[in-house]
């Protein structure tokens, strides 16, 4: 059997078949890698070689084993699956990216500072005596303070009275009996006679009511035109006192005058007199 020698036309035809076969293998490898390799990476399409370019078949990518999952590199991070994930089936997971809103701490109430009082130009602190009894005689009131001017004038309830300057810390005010005729509280202050801005604060002087005599006028005895008052204790004691004008009962109560209507009796300790009206004894 004789062997035919290849002609140039047959050689050219065989080369075309080999080239087409190689191209088919390359395309098949690309398709297999895109759809069967498990990777989502996009592989750029292979260039089809021209008839002149010599091509080398692309190696077939190795398929990963079933125990190792294919890496996901093209999908975005699923935050919803992380936020809503649960450690137990059927449960609602805690959103690790949602932080609880802190409870606001209430602001403390504003503190209003206590206003500092404006100091008096002439501060006075006390008086002596600190209290007197109403209806007593006039007296001298000593006022103690600081920065008292030499021309200081003393005032009681806003009325000026004769004042004697002793020192920058002391003055004396002559208080007449008429200023303390009624019980109550009197305001004492001092002020410069030449500068109205040099004035002091006001301090109190207590005027107490005088004690009442503890007797009742229950009878009158007249012998030789000399009246005698019959006095009985307010507490209902059975003892009675027959007292003439000028007589003293209870150690300090002096009978000043006697009439059928009343008896005038004086507290000799403070020189204050009282009127006791005639009263029929209920006993």
Describe it for me?
- The protein has 283 residues and is mostly beta strands.
- The chain is built from two helices and 16 strands.
- It has helices at residues 8-36, 79-83; strands spanning 124-128, 131-133, 139-145, 152-156, 159-161, 163-167, 170-175, 184-192, 203-208, 215-223, 226-233, 241-244, 248-249, 253-258, 262-267, 272-277.
- A hairpin with a 3-residue loop joins strand 14 (253-258) and strand 15.
Percentage of residues in strands: 25-35%
Secondary-structure element pattern, one letter each? HHEEEEEEEEEEEEEEEE
User: With helices defined by DSSP (H or I, 4 residues minimum), what is the helix count?
Assistant: 2
Query: Percentage of helical residues?
Result: 10-25%
Main sheet strand line-up: 2-9-8-4-5
Helix/strand/pairing class, anyone? mainly beta
Count of individual beta strands: 16
> Which shape, going by the Cα principal axes?
rod-shaped
Main beta sheet: 5 strands, mixed
Would you identify the regions where 5 or more consecutive residues have pLDDT less than 50? 39-43, 48-55, 84-91
Give the radius of gyration.
63 Å
Indicate the mean pLDDT. 81
Intertermini distance: 185 Å
């Amino acid at each position: 059997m004789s062997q035919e020698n290849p002609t140039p036309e047959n050689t050219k035809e065989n080369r075309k078949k080999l080239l087409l076969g190689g191209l088919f293998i390359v395309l098949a490898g690309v398709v297999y890698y895109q759809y069967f390799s498990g990777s989502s990476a996009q592989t750029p399409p292979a260039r089809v070689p021209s008839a002149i370019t010599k091509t080398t078949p692309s190696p077939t990518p190795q398929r990963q084993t079933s125990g190792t999952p294919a890496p996901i590199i093209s999908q975005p991070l699923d935050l919803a699956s992380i936020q809503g994930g649960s450690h137990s089936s059927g449960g609602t997971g805690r959103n690790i990216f949602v932080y609880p809103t802190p409870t606001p701490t209430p602001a403390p109430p504003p503190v209003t500072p206590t206003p500092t009082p404006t100091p008096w130009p002439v501060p006075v602190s006390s008086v002596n005596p600190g209290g007197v009894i109403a209806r007593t005689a006039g007296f001298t009131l000593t006022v103690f303070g600081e920065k008292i001017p030499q021309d200081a004038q003393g005032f009681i309830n806003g009325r000026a009275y004769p004042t004697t300057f002793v020192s920058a810390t002391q003055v004396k005010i002559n208080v007449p009996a008429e200023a303390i005729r009624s019980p109550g509280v009197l305001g004492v202050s001092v002020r410069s006679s030449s500068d109205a801005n040099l004035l002091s604060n006001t301090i109190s002087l207590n005027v107490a009511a005088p004690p009442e005599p503890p007797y009742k006028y229950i009878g009158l005895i007249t012998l030789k035109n000399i009246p005698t008052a019959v006095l009985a204790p307010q507490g209902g004691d059975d003892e009675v006192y027959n007292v003439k004008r000028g007589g003293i009962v209870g150690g300090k109560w002096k009978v000043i005058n006697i009439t059928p209507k009343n008896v005038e009796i004086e507290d000799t300790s403070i020189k204050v007199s009282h009127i006791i009206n005639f009263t029929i004894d209920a006993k």
